[in-house]
Design a protein that fits this description.
Blueprint: H1 15-22, E1 30-33, H2 34-41, E2 50-54, E3 59-64, H3 69-79, E4 88-91, H4 97-102, E5 105-108, H5 114-119, E6 122-123, H6 131-138
Parallel strand pairs: 4-5, 5-6
Antiparallel strand pairs: 1-3, 2-3
Length: 142
């Protein structure tokens, strides 16, 4: 975005305008270009508020830091019988760190970053090599 950006409804002319506009919405996830997300991530005031997860094709997912997979899995577990059995979690990105801490068995995909693999109990193949299926077979879940 720049000062010479077109003046069109729904488009912000500056990064500051975009952030101001976003403050009026309730969102769980925002997808944007990685280059713009990296620019926003430099704002240290946003670090405690937002989680940045770089996806493929130069797209980054931004979500509230308190909106975690750990919170989601905990909500499900709270609704289940206390004797629900072993809980497995499979992840491949930075937003899966909290998931690894919330489950009994954390499984990292082969394409996951090293810091996630270090937190995992088991590392399976990458997503494009059927890593989820292989992990489920390894633990005799299918």
């Amino acid at each position: 975005m720049s000062a010479d950006a077109p003046d069109a409804p729904g488009y912000a002319r500056t990064l500051g305008d975009a952030v101001t506009q976003l403050q009026h919405y309730s969102a769980y996830k925002i997808l944007m270009s990685t280059s713009l997300a990296n620019h926003i991530a430099q704002d240290k005031a946003l670090e405690p508020l937002l989680c940045f997860n770089e996806l493929e094709l130069e797209v980054t997912e931004i979500s509230p830091r308190e909106c975690t997979k750990r919170g989601g899995i905990q909500s499900v577990l709270d609704a289940l019988d206390p004797h629900h059995g072993t809980v497995y979690g499979i992840g491949d990105a930075s937003n899966d760190v909290s998931l690894m801490n919330a489950v009994d068995v954390g499984i990292a995909m082969g394409n996951a970053p090293d810091y996630l693999k270090k937190r995992a109990d088991y590392i399976t193949d990458s997503v494009d090599k059927d890593g989820v299926v292989k992990a489920l077979e390894h633990f005799r879940l299918i």
